[in-house]
Amino acid sequence: MRKIAVLYSGSSHQHRSFTEPKYKPYIAELLYLPKLAQTDLNQFDVLIVPSQIHQEQVTRHLEQIHAFLDSGKTVVALGAQHHSWFPNHRWESRPTNFWWWLEPGAQSGLVLTMPEHDLFRYITLEDATWHYHGVFFPEQEVESLIEIENDGSILYVDKKSTQGTLILTTLDPEYHYGSYFMPATERFLDGFLPWLANGRI
User: Fold this and answer.
1) Superkingdom of the source (predicted)?
2) Using CA atoms, how far apart are residues 110 and 78, in angstroms rounded to an integer?
3) Closest-CA residue to 50 (of 11, 68, 85, 77)
4) Of 192, 185, 52, nearest in space to 130 by CA
5) What is the pTM of this model?
6) Which residue in 23, 32, 37, 101 has its CB near the most CB atoms, within 10 A?
7) From CA 160, how far away is CA 137, in angstroms rounded?
């Protein structure tokens, strides 16, 4: 099983999501972001950068995070990534429709573009469907797993831009699960964390 660490800035939703008893077995350690420089990241295989995290603190530690990625490890960044923390992602803003499912004949607009990918042995498209915050137009060849129909990607795996593996999504499951709303986000985490730990990334 891969050893997963999570950047932690003290938010209640982060604490609830990553210390939940059913998820805790997949999380080796919560790394307090202000003290990240004192941590040897080499002991971990995967580093999760949660959504709704202190942006200046992440920016301050980018050199350390990039060194981890360039050592061949995996970085997962959740939520809108409008900062240029990671290369070649080309994020574009899109209006977030929080209540789309209340509209007559509602369609999320999300499509699986690689249904054969190993991730989808762990989650379904429905598990990844609540709302999204922007889209990506990656500049490198990537494995784009979920896209907006006739638009950009909202979840992709990039093995070209760095020496490691970069998994980017504009979904924010740990924020909503940790804030006690959006049932799909629990189903997403139920599959996504086991996939990060044991799946074929």
Assistant:
1) Bacteria
2) 17
3) 77
4) 185
5) 0.94
6) 23
7) 14
